[in-house]
Amino acid sequence: MDLKEWAQLQESLLKSQLKVIRQFLRGTEQPVRKKTGRSQMDVVHDVLQAAGKPLHVTEIIAMAEKDFGVLLDRETIVSALTKKVKSGRMFQRVAPNTFTLLDRQVT
Q: How many angstroms separate the CA atoms of 97 and 9, rounded?
């Protein structure tokens, strides 16, 4: 094993350890794993569906991490949601950076 491979292995091990420590500090005993095959938009959809109301992107990100153990990048999510809104698919914007499911009536 050369130095670069060793460094990559160490980085991977440290990332795993840090993830477990963060979950311990949040009070989760078992590491929460992202289900394979689920996109970030699927997670956002599930978060909005569970909330049952429009959420600001900050709330969406917090709930995705808390409920699904998925870390979402704010800029990526806002960009993806904006594209979906503009194309008229899945989501609608009800206020600045606040989104809901397209089929949900906003009151």
A: 38
Q: Give the CA radius of gyration of the chain.
A: 17
Nearest to 85 by CA among 41, 19, 35, 24: 41
* pLDDT of the residue at 29: 52
Q: How do residues 12-31 score in pLDDT, each as one tens digit? A: 888 888 888 888 888 755 54
Q: Would you kindly state where each structural domain of the chain is located, as residue ranges?
A: 1-31, 32-107
Is domain 32-107 annotated with CATH 3.40.220.10? no
Q: How many CB atoms lie within 10 A of CB 25?
A: 8
Instruction: For residue 50, give Cα distances in angstroms to 57, 97, 100.
Output: 15, 18, 11
In the chain, % helix, strand, coil (3-state, to 5) comes to 60, 10, 30
- Which residue has 């840090």 as its token pair? 18
